Amino acid sequence: MKIVVVFKWARNPLDARVSADAAISWPGVKLAASDDDPAAMEIAAALAAGDEVVGLTIGDGDTAWAAARGAARTVVVTDAPGETDSAATGAALAAAVRRMTGVGAVLIGDSAWDYAVVSALAGRLGWPAVAGVTAACPERGELRVTRRLGAATQALSAAGPVVLAVTANRAEKNVPGMKEVLAARKKPVEKITAADLNTASRYQVQTQGVRFPDTPPARIIDGGDPPTACEQLIAALRTDGVI
Amino acid sequence: MAIDGWVIIVDENRAGGMLDAARRLGGRVTAAVAGRRDLAKRAAGMGFDRVLCWESADGVPPEAYAAAMAERAAQEAPRLVLASDAPPARVLLGAAAAALNAALVASVRAVAAAGEKIVVSRAAAEGKVLEDIAVSGALAGIFDGDDAEQRGGAAVTVEIVPAEAGAALRVLSTEAESGAAGLLTAARVVGVGLGLRARDDLQIIEKLAAAMGAETACTLPVCDDMRWFASHSVVGSSHSRIAPDLYIALGISGQPQHMSGVRDAKVVVAVNSDPEARIFKNCDYGIVGDLYKIVPVLTAAFAASKNP
Ligand SMILES: Cc1cc2nc3c(=O)[nH]c(=O)nc-3n(C[C@H](O)[C@H](O)[C@H](O)COP(=O)(O)OP(=O)(O)OC[C@H]3O[C@@H](n4cnc5c(N)ncnc54)[C@H](O)[C@@H]3O)c2cc1C
Ligand SMILES: Cc1cc2nc3c(=O)[nH]c(=O)nc-3n(C[C@H](O)[C@H](O)[C@H](O)COP(=O)(O)OP(=O)(O)OC[C@H]3O[C@@H](n4cnc5c(N)ncnc54)[C@H](O)[C@@H]3O)c2cc1C
Do A23 and A98 form a contact (C-beta atoms < 8 A)? Predict the structure, then answer.
């Protein structure tokens, strides 16, 4: 089955520096794929069973990322918007998928960094979609998809072209080495623009600035003297009505 | 201007919080429920102005109603659609957003009306700041704000929407993780991280849990690498999410993958020897200290508070 894997370049929100006026900056922080993307790639390679896996991304990130993990080629929408309104990003990705023929499944990292692109892509494609996916395998001409739902594990059957948003539960195990990466750089990369896709986005959103939330900071208790610290904590918990 | 909103519901998580948020726009708030009829009935008692229900047949997941729900959304054209981050809810939201040609924003904490526009506040940089975004058209948001209990009032009637589920998606089986049940409903939970040095030291944790009447939980490496707990005890984004009144995190650094699992806890207490630990930015009370010194004293204090 021909599979498209969408991989996303983003900055880990944990690395954001926030200044005194709440402005965000990313000094020296590189764009990286999230932990979920390799998990999506792993399932894709298994599902493809020898058929083509195509990497799909937007922007100017490393085009060899998917190729180093088994993709035969990569498509990049160079100027698709990746920012505030994920609807525009999803629309560009969906249009890029539609341009390909015979796609059986689109896999994307179910990125907790930003869930919205997943929703937007699935909605724009209009294909059956499952998020929170942890495993998938072919079964009687359909896909057997496993996902986490709260504390339960659910198995679903999915027929026809589907969107699967894959969630990882650990960091990538077998990171490709230099050899794979060098070989991947030789694989074909097709660069297209939003104009090619007819999805020149119209922005519906406008940022008005950033501010600190009004939640009070934690009350920090010095634990140097454990009895006093515990006494203070118990008193506070009592005031809060939780004990 | 009153702006009508929809709240997509596949489970009760954050439904009350989303209702409160949507109310801020002053319009009629509709619950769009995909699931069992009794879920719709509970929504009807929460204070929504109207409840639509795409009643799921046996073995049909909520996502199967995405197209049907989106079609109705397109007819009614609400300016706001909210959903929780539950996987089925996010799929339904995406379909509705596409049908409405809506902007799509995640990590939504609040919405407000500003003239003709909707201003949505979303968390950025791992919740450290809020960004306010003005939206001129329709807005679809993945809601990440606080839940709110709804006292309800007179329950509205549930309108069952007849709909095709298609044949593409079916549930084959659902297995609740055995062993997790106690943790999921516990009022108090003690969580252990890699700050604990040896398996034998779990004794002091268990004594504290017993004195508190709490369940125990752990971070992923304590299960995966140390194998001190089974996987149903792991709390976090890729495992169980819990909502106790009180969560005490012992020797846990506070990585987002863990903390997202306790976001709905009422009060989070952290004990960590590193004053720079990330968890101190993400809790209500923090004790900077050695858990080996704090835990026994805390155990005695809880025991004493039980039998004054
Ligand atoms: C499939 C895919 C592939 C992608 N590939 C690439 C790529 O190759 N290269 C690339 O650059 N991006 C890429 N992106 C987009 C990337 O993930 C980020 O969303 C994008 O870089 C925007 O980053 P940001 O830091 O500006 O905003 P965010 O990551 O959205 O930043 C977090 C927050 O900071 C706010 N913020 C940012 N700058 C400021 C500022 N100056 N003042 C106030 N607030 C601010 C933002 O509005 C936001 O709320 C891709 C996205 C997808 C979905
Ligand atoms: C895809 C993916 C999914 C993940 N999902 C989850 C998940 O669902 N749940 C989860 O928990 N993790 C998850 N993780 C792992 C997560 O990123 C962190 O690695 C993990 O939560 C860290 O566990 P920890 O806090 O126990 O360990 P550490 O980060 O090592 O922290 C130990 C802490 O103990 C403190 N300490 C040490 N000695 C003492 C002492 N004597 N007294 C007091 N404090 C002490 C240290 O200061 C430190 O802060 C996931 C990771 C990935 C990549």
Answer: no
The residue type found at A168 is A
pLDDT in tens, A81-136: 777 789 999 999 999 999 999 999 999 999 777 789 999 999 999 999 999 999 99
Residue with tokens 């009060």: B267
Q: How far does Cα A44 stand from its chain's mean position?
A: 15
Enter the DSSP assignment of A28: T
Residues of B in contact with A242 (CB under 8 A): 245-246, 266-267
Q: Residue holding tokens 């948020």?
A: B21
Burial category of A189 from C-beta neighbours within 10 Å (exposed 0-12, middle 13-18, buried 19 and up): middle
pLDDT tens by residue, B204-252: 999 999 999 999 999 999 999 999 999 999 999 888 999 999 999 999 9
Could you tell me the domains of chain B?
A: 3-160 (3.40.50.620), 180-306 (3.40.50.1220)
Minimum-distance CB partner of A229 among B11, B237, B294: B294
Check residue B250 and give its pLDDT: 98
For A94, the token pair is 């969906």
% of chain B exceeding 70 in pLDDT = 99
Query: Which residues, numbered 50 to 89 in chain A, qualify as contacts with chain B under a Cβ-Cβ cut-off of 8 Å?
Result: 84-87
Cα(A52)–Cα(B176) distance, integer angstroms? 36
Name residue A208's beta-bridge partners: none
Report ipTM (2 d.p.): 0.91
Encode A122-145: b = buried (16+ Cβ within 10 Å), e = exposed. Answer: bbbbbbbbbbbbbbbeeeeebbeb
> A51 CA to chain B: closest CA distance, Å?
22
Q: Is B84 exposed, middle or buried (0-12, 13-18, 19+ CB in 10 A)?
A: buried
Q: Where are the alpha helices (DSSP H) in chain A?
A: 36-48, 86-98, 116-125, 178-184, 194-197, 226-240
